[in-house]
Amino acid sequence: MSLDYAHNPLLDSHIFVPDVEAHAWGDGRIYLYGSLDMQGDTRFCSPVHHVYSSEDMIHWVDHGVVFSIQDSTWAKDCGVLYAPDCAYRDGWYYLYYCVPDGRCGVAKSESPTGPFVDVGQIEGVWGIDPAVLIDDDGQAYLYWGQLTWGKVAKLKENMVEIEQDSITQPLTVAEHEFHEGSSVKKINGKYYFLFADTHRHGDTHRNDGRPSCLGYAVSDHPMHGFQYGGIIIDNFGCDPKVWNNHGSMEYFKGQWYVFYHRSTHGSEFSRHVCAEPIFFNEDGSISEVLQTSSGVGGSIAVSNHIPANLACELFGHVRIAGDIASPENLVLAQIQNGDTACYRYLDFFGESQMRIRIRTSVVCRVELYVDQMYHAEMKVAPTDGYVDAVAAMPPLSGKHTVTWKFYYNEDLAEVSVDAFGFR
Q1: pLDDT band at residue 411 using 50, 70 and 90 as cut-offs
Q2: Quick check: 4 and 233 in contact, CB under 8 A?
Q3: Does 349 reside within a domain?
Q4: Does one domain contain both 129 and 239?
Q5: pLDDT tens digits, residue range 117-142?
Q6: What are the tens digits of pLDDT across the range 199-226?
Q7: DSSP structural state of residue 46
Q8: From CA 213, how far away is CA 204, in angstroms rounded?
Q9: Which of 80, 127, 265, 361 is least surrounded by Cβ atoms within 10 Å, i.e. has the fewest?
Q10: Do 203 and 280 share a domain, yes or no?
């Protein structure tokens, strides 16, 4: 179901695009280049890349398969394509792609939406997640790799070969807690290096923490001297088993955004692309932002139909997963006693009634919290399929974080939610 308002995830719920590099090429649209996960699949990525574009970051065009592993002249046996990036030079768009064994290649097109024709493998590059920066003087740089294999090199004029004697390591595990997912932008004369960061959620000294953060480092040079700056966003909490994060920053129509992904299905996989506005401080630092359901719009008017799969944080066993009985495609599934789902931010205009579309095999008490304060509740009897449960509540106005909490007394139960709203 397409929604006519800004929200996270950015794309329709059945489209799983992680590892996004966003580019505004100057034609009034923003383009997303990322991997493509399959719903419910227990592996990262797939054999194809799509490109998505928008002029308002609400309504998106899927430009279809722009490159496939079968289009590669050297990697057909690798099965899937990992995270890409795209760069523009002299009338050509260059798609940098990689495969699981660490080899990287280039394809090119005269259109930002392809189709891209393979040029070949990049010799001397070994490691995933290629990213490209073209500096003000025209020199291009290629970044790639994981952990101690994170590297950068100068690209030659042909945008296909690297100057192998220029290879250096811009970030380290010890100093920056670099994991993978390079993305570099030049902003106000400084080089901002965005990457998957393990500063939180594990033993970072052994680097076995979850790389759920997008951290950044800043330098006066594109190849060295990067000083750790902090975390821009952390996707921990989007799913019980979320593992990684990978994204980018882009400036579009007067605003900087961070693009990142969130897992679903109680897994490390089936990841959705999301975006949040970000802000630079006077000293050049970037303030950390929270995951939201409203994304680039800032808030969602609660008079809208709100799919439950827009939850930005989950607590307990609950996860966002598929349910063929729901028209929403994805629902809050496998809800256990005490589980919680958070929606940030919703905009109220005096509404005094809450509605939740729920399926439950037991008597379930649903509590509504507003900015972490108890607000109202309803008791729902066992249902035959999804039904609308409705209850009065004290009127609300303004922008708030809304949390649903679920309670029941049975040991075994099936509880799921596919949508809600207020009036």
Answers
A1: confident
A2: no
A3: yes
A4: yes
A5: 999 999 999 999 999 999 999 999 99
A6: 998 754 444 679 999 999 999 999 999 9
A7: B
A8: 12
A9: 361
A10: yes
Domain count, the chain: 2
Q: What pTM value is reported for the model?
A: 0.96
Q: Which amino acid is at 118?
A: D
Query: Tokens 């001297």 sit at which residue?
Result: 225
Which tokens go with 84?
A: 């890409």
Residue range 240-247: average pLDDT? Answer: 96
Same domain as 291, residue 202: yes
Domain assignment present for residue 15? The answer is no
Range(s) of the domain holding residue 409: 306-422
Asked whether residue 153 is domain-assigned, the answer is yes
* Whether residue 100 sits in one domain with residue 149: yes
Task: Please tell me whether residues 87 and 122 are part of one structural domain.
Answer: yes
Angle CA(259)–CA(175)–CA(33) in degrees, nearest 5? 20
Angle ∠(240,329,258) on CA atoms, nearest 5: 55
Note the pLDDT of residue 208.
60
Q: H or E element: which one contains 218?
A: strand 213-219
Sequence-distant (6+) residues with CB within 8 A of 13 are: 1, 272, 307, 309, 328, 329, 330
Q: Give the number of other CB atoms < 10 A from CB of residue 162.
A: 23
CATH of the domain at 324: 2.60.120.260
Digit-coded pLDDT (tens) for 267-314:
999 999 999 999 999 999 999 999 999 999 999 999 999 999 999 999
Q: Look-up: residue for tokens 């928008």? A: 54
Q: What CATH number did the domain enclosing 83 receive?
A: 2.115.10.20
Task: Name every residue whose Cβ is closer than 8 Å to that of residue 82 and which is 6 or more positions away in sequence.
Answer: 19, 35, 44, 45, 97, 98, 99, 100, 128, 129
Domain closes at, from 267, 297, 327: 297
Q: How far is CA 115 from CA 23, 31, 38, 71, 95, in A?
A: 17, 14, 21, 10, 10
